[in-house]
Design goal:
Elements (H helix, E strand, L loop, with lengths): L1 H19 L2 E21 L7 E13 L4 E12 L4 E11 L4 E11 L2 E12 L6 E9 L7 E12 L2
Antiparallel strand pairs: 1-2, 1-8, 2-3, 3-4, 4-5, 5-6, 6-7, 7-8
Length: 159
């Protein structure tokens, strides 16, 4: 009989431990305007029209639920005016101070921009968050800024 009690107690402990480690999945959808603040480009010798660049940019993201976040990021680019790739790191800081830190990769062609995110860390309500995301450009006629839409799918540890 004591073996059954021990097995039952072990099962209860396992369930409690699994419950405390459970994560809440959140999908955050947004539209965002981004613009470079400082980017330096260098032309590649003997490859006409090709350059690499590095710099900083900022943006404002408006989320489906009405929240707003300021985005600042660093970016490196490799390509021509027709097509290329980029990678960088972003921090989205919400009005209440919560933040998400992400790595992104992407690129551009004549059809527009698109890329993917990997969540690196978070603060506040996003403490311990993991996840991925995606973004792509939306047509606009602005000079010096881009309109994007995207989403993050996050696993946030239950508090």
């Amino acid at each position: 009989m004591s073996v059954w009690k021990l097995a039952g107690a072990a099962g209860v402990v396992a369930c409690l431990m699994a419950g405390s480690a459970a994560a809440e999945e959140q999908t955050l959808r947004f539209r965002m305007v981004v613009a470079p603040t400082e980017v330096v480009y260098s032309e590649i010798a003997n490859v006409p029209g090709h350059s690499v660049g590095a710099g900083e940019a900022v943006g404002i993201a408006v989320f489906e639920d009405g929240r707003i976040a300021f985005k600042n990021f660093v970016i490196s680019t490799d390509g021509s005016s027709d097509a290329g790739s980029y990678r960088g790191y972003s921090t989205y800081t919400f009005q209440n101070g919560d933040s998400l830190n992400l790595k992104f990769t992407g690129g551009w062609t004549a059809e527009g921009e698109k890329g993917d995110y990997e969540v690196l860390s978070g603060t506040g309500a996003f403490e311990g968050a993991t996840g991925t995301g995606h973004f792509e450009s939306i047509d606009e006629a602005w000079e010096g800024a881009n309109l994007l839409e995207g989403s993050f799918t996050l696993d946030v540890p239950a508090m």
